[in-house]
Design brief:
Structural class: alpha/beta
CATH topology: Rossmann fold
Helix content: 25-40%
Number of helices: 5
Radius of gyration: 15 Å
Bound molecules: adenosine-5'-diphosphate, magnesium ion
Largest sheet: 7 strands, mixed
Strand order of the largest sheet: 1-7-6-2-5-4-3
CATH superfamily: P-loop containing nucleotide triphosphate hydrolases
Distance between the termini: 30 Å
Number of domains: 1
Oligomer: single chain
Number of strands: 7
Order of helices and strands: EHEHEEHHEEEH
CATH architecture: 3-Layer(aba) Sandwich
Length: 177
Protein backbone atom coordinates (compact mmCIF):
# COMPACT_ATOMS: atom_id res chain seq x y z
CA UNK A 1 0.00 0.00 0.00
CA UNK A 2 2.92 2.34 0.54
CA UNK A 3 4.71 1.89 -2.74
CA UNK A 4 5.61 4.84 -4.92
CA UNK A 5 3.20 5.93 -7.61
CA UNK A 6 5.90 6.86 -10.09
CA UNK A 7 8.58 4.95 -11.95
CA UNK A 8 11.09 6.15 -14.53
CA UNK A 9 12.69 3.90 -17.12
CA UNK A 10 14.87 4.95 -20.06
CA UNK A 11 15.13 2.92 -23.23
CA UNK A 12 17.91 2.99 -25.81
CA UNK A 13 16.31 2.22 -29.17
CA UNK A 14 12.91 1.13 -30.38
CA UNK A 15 13.56 -2.57 -29.67
CA UNK A 16 14.10 -1.76 -25.99
CA UNK A 17 10.86 0.19 -25.95
CA UNK A 18 8.99 -2.77 -27.40
CA UNK A 19 10.62 -5.01 -24.80
CA UNK A 20 9.42 -2.61 -22.11
CA UNK A 21 5.90 -2.89 -23.54
CA UNK A 22 6.10 -6.68 -23.36
CA UNK A 23 7.20 -6.40 -19.74
CA UNK A 24 4.35 -4.02 -18.94
CA UNK A 25 1.85 -6.41 -20.51
CA UNK A 26 2.63 -9.06 -17.91
CA UNK A 27 1.08 -6.87 -15.21
CA UNK A 28 -1.96 -5.67 -17.13
CA UNK A 29 -5.35 -7.29 -16.88
CA UNK A 30 -8.90 -6.95 -18.18
CA UNK A 31 -10.29 -3.46 -17.74
CA UNK A 32 -6.95 -1.70 -17.40
CA UNK A 33 -6.48 1.70 -19.03
CA UNK A 34 -3.10 3.11 -20.09
CA UNK A 35 -2.75 6.72 -21.29
CA UNK A 36 0.26 7.45 -23.50
CA UNK A 37 1.45 11.06 -23.62
CA UNK A 38 4.33 12.37 -25.66
CA UNK A 39 5.09 14.22 -28.89
CA UNK A 40 4.88 12.70 -32.37
CA UNK A 41 7.62 10.12 -32.71
CA UNK A 42 8.01 9.68 -28.95
CA UNK A 43 7.34 5.95 -29.05
CA UNK A 44 3.70 5.64 -28.01
CA UNK A 45 2.93 3.23 -30.81
CA UNK A 46 6.20 1.35 -30.29
CA UNK A 47 5.33 0.75 -26.63
CA UNK A 48 1.84 -0.35 -27.67
CA UNK A 49 3.35 -2.82 -30.15
CA UNK A 50 5.29 -4.36 -27.29
CA UNK A 51 2.18 -4.59 -25.13
CA UNK A 52 0.39 -6.24 -28.05
CA UNK A 53 3.17 -8.79 -28.37
CA UNK A 54 3.01 -9.42 -24.63
CA UNK A 55 -0.74 -9.96 -24.81
CA UNK A 56 -0.23 -12.29 -27.75
CA UNK A 57 -2.54 -10.39 -30.10
CA UNK A 58 -2.82 -10.37 -33.86
CA UNK A 59 -0.94 -7.57 -35.55
CA UNK A 60 0.06 -5.36 -37.02
CA UNK A 61 -0.35 -2.80 -34.25
CA UNK A 62 0.10 0.64 -35.79
CA UNK A 63 -1.70 3.99 -35.91
CA UNK A 64 -3.82 4.07 -39.07
CA UNK A 65 -4.88 7.60 -39.86
CA UNK A 66 -8.61 7.01 -39.97
CA UNK A 67 -9.05 4.47 -37.19
CA UNK A 68 -9.77 5.95 -33.80
CA UNK A 69 -10.05 2.63 -31.99
CA UNK A 70 -8.54 -0.62 -33.21
CA UNK A 71 -9.24 -3.96 -31.59
CA UNK A 72 -6.61 -6.70 -31.75
CA UNK A 73 -7.80 -10.14 -30.79
CA UNK A 74 -5.61 -12.59 -28.95
CA UNK A 75 -4.23 -15.36 -31.14
CA UNK A 76 -5.65 -17.94 -28.75
CA UNK A 77 -8.60 -18.00 -26.35
CA UNK A 78 -8.41 -15.29 -23.68
CA UNK A 79 -6.14 -16.24 -20.81
CA UNK A 80 -3.87 -14.29 -18.52
CA UNK A 81 -1.39 -14.29 -21.43
CA UNK A 82 -3.81 -13.52 -24.23
CA UNK A 83 -6.20 -10.57 -23.94
CA UNK A 84 -7.84 -8.28 -26.48
CA UNK A 85 -5.86 -5.09 -26.99
CA UNK A 86 -7.78 -1.90 -27.73
CA UNK A 87 -5.60 0.81 -29.23
CA UNK A 88 -6.98 4.33 -29.57
CA UNK A 89 -5.27 7.27 -31.24
CA UNK A 90 -7.09 10.54 -30.56
CA UNK A 91 -4.62 12.76 -32.41
CA UNK A 92 -7.16 14.03 -34.94
CA UNK A 93 -9.84 14.91 -32.42
CA UNK A 94 -10.21 18.48 -31.27
CA UNK A 95 -13.14 18.58 -28.86
CA UNK A 96 -13.48 16.66 -25.58
CA UNK A 97 -17.07 15.88 -26.64
CA UNK A 98 -15.73 13.82 -29.52
CA UNK A 99 -13.67 11.79 -27.08
CA UNK A 100 -16.68 11.29 -24.83
CA UNK A 101 -18.74 10.09 -27.80
CA UNK A 102 -16.26 7.31 -28.51
CA UNK A 103 -17.16 5.58 -25.23
CA UNK A 104 -13.73 4.03 -25.17
CA UNK A 105 -13.64 2.37 -21.77
CA UNK A 106 -17.03 0.63 -22.09
CA UNK A 107 -16.08 -0.61 -25.54
CA UNK A 108 -12.80 -1.98 -24.23
CA UNK A 109 -14.20 -3.55 -21.08
CA UNK A 110 -13.17 -7.10 -22.06
CA UNK A 111 -9.55 -6.20 -22.70
CA UNK A 112 -6.74 -3.75 -22.12
CA UNK A 113 -7.09 -0.18 -23.44
CA UNK A 114 -4.13 1.95 -24.54
CA UNK A 115 -4.80 5.52 -25.65
CA UNK A 116 -2.46 7.79 -27.60
CA UNK A 117 -3.09 11.56 -27.32
CA UNK A 118 -5.37 11.25 -24.26
CA UNK A 119 -4.93 15.00 -23.69
CA UNK A 120 -7.53 15.51 -26.44
CA UNK A 121 -10.18 14.69 -23.83
CA UNK A 122 -8.78 13.71 -20.44
CA UNK A 123 -12.03 14.60 -18.67
CA UNK A 124 -13.88 12.00 -20.77
CA UNK A 125 -11.43 9.19 -19.92
CA UNK A 126 -11.33 6.98 -16.82
CA UNK A 127 -10.11 8.89 -13.77
CA UNK A 128 -8.06 5.88 -12.67
CA UNK A 129 -5.39 4.86 -15.15
CA UNK A 130 -1.73 4.28 -15.73
CA UNK A 131 -0.27 7.43 -17.23
CA UNK A 132 2.86 7.02 -19.33
CA UNK A 133 4.72 10.21 -20.20
CA UNK A 134 7.35 9.75 -22.89
CA UNK A 135 10.08 12.32 -23.42
CA UNK A 136 12.90 12.61 -25.89
CA UNK A 137 16.37 12.88 -24.42
CA UNK A 138 18.37 15.83 -25.69
CA UNK A 139 21.40 14.86 -27.71
CA UNK A 140 20.58 11.13 -27.78
CA UNK A 141 18.25 10.43 -30.73
CA UNK A 142 17.60 6.79 -29.81
CA UNK A 143 16.89 7.37 -26.12
CA UNK A 144 13.47 7.89 -24.56
CA UNK A 145 12.49 8.53 -20.96
CA UNK A 146 9.33 6.80 -19.78
CA UNK A 147 7.67 8.10 -16.63
CA UNK A 148 4.93 5.79 -15.41
CA UNK A 149 2.45 7.40 -13.03
CA UNK A 150 -0.13 5.26 -11.23
CA UNK A 151 -3.43 7.10 -10.77
CA UNK A 152 -5.37 4.82 -8.46
CA UNK A 153 -4.38 1.92 -6.24
CA UNK A 154 -4.83 -0.70 -8.96
CA UNK A 155 -2.06 0.87 -11.03
CA UNK A 156 0.37 0.94 -8.14
CA UNK A 157 0.25 -2.84 -8.34
CA UNK A 158 1.20 -2.58 -12.02
CA UNK A 159 4.16 -0.37 -11.14
CA UNK A 160 5.21 -2.79 -8.40
CA UNK A 161 5.36 -5.57 -10.97
CA UNK A 162 7.15 -3.47 -13.53
CA UNK A 163 9.72 -2.33 -11.01
CA UNK A 164 10.36 -5.82 -9.67
CA UNK A 165 10.79 -7.21 -13.17
CA UNK A 166 13.23 -4.38 -13.86
CA UNK A 167 15.52 -5.71 -11.17
CA UNK A 168 15.60 -9.06 -12.93
CA UNK A 169 16.40 -7.22 -16.10
CA UNK A 170 19.24 -5.26 -14.51
CA UNK A 171 20.87 -8.43 -13.26
CA UNK A 172 21.13 -9.52 -16.86
CA UNK A 173 18.84 -12.43 -17.54
CA UNK A 174 15.91 -10.68 -19.18
CA UNK A 175 17.73 -7.79 -20.83
CA UNK A 176 17.76 -8.56 -24.51
CA UNK A 177 14.32 -10.18 -24.84
N1 LIG B 1 14.09 4.47 -27.59
C1 LIG B 1 13.15 4.56 -28.56
N2 LIG B 1 11.89 4.14 -28.29
C2 LIG B 1 10.91 4.22 -29.22
N3 LIG B 1 11.09 4.71 -30.46
C3 LIG B 1 12.32 5.13 -30.78
C4 LIG B 1 13.39 5.07 -29.85
N4 LIG B 1 14.50 5.58 -30.45
C5 LIG B 1 14.13 5.91 -31.69
N5 LIG B 1 12.82 5.66 -31.91
C6 LIG B 1 12.07 5.95 -33.15
O1 LIG B 1 11.06 6.89 -32.84
C7 LIG B 1 9.87 6.58 -33.57
C8 LIG B 1 8.71 6.31 -32.62
O2 LIG B 1 7.55 6.18 -33.42
P1 LIG B 1 6.11 5.88 -32.81
O3 LIG B 1 6.20 4.77 -31.84
O4 LIG B 1 5.21 5.73 -33.98
O5 LIG B 1 5.82 7.26 -32.04
P2 LIG B 1 4.43 7.89 -31.60
O6 LIG B 1 3.39 6.81 -31.65
O7 LIG B 1 4.70 8.38 -30.20
O8 LIG B 1 4.17 9.02 -32.53
C9 LIG B 1 10.19 5.38 -34.44
O9 LIG B 1 10.58 5.84 -35.71
C10 LIG B 1 11.35 4.73 -33.71
O10 LIG B 1 12.20 4.01 -34.56
MG1 LIG C 1 1.51 6.73 -32.65
Amino acid sequence: MSTANRLQINTAGVAKTRALGRRLARYLRVGDVVLLQGPLGAGKTALTQGVGAGLNVEGPVNSPTFVLLARHDPLEAPTARGLPLYHADLYRLTAPDEVADLNLAPQAADGVLLIEWPERGLAALPAEHLLVVIELVEGVPSERRFTFVAVGERYRRVLDGLEASGHVSRSGSARAR
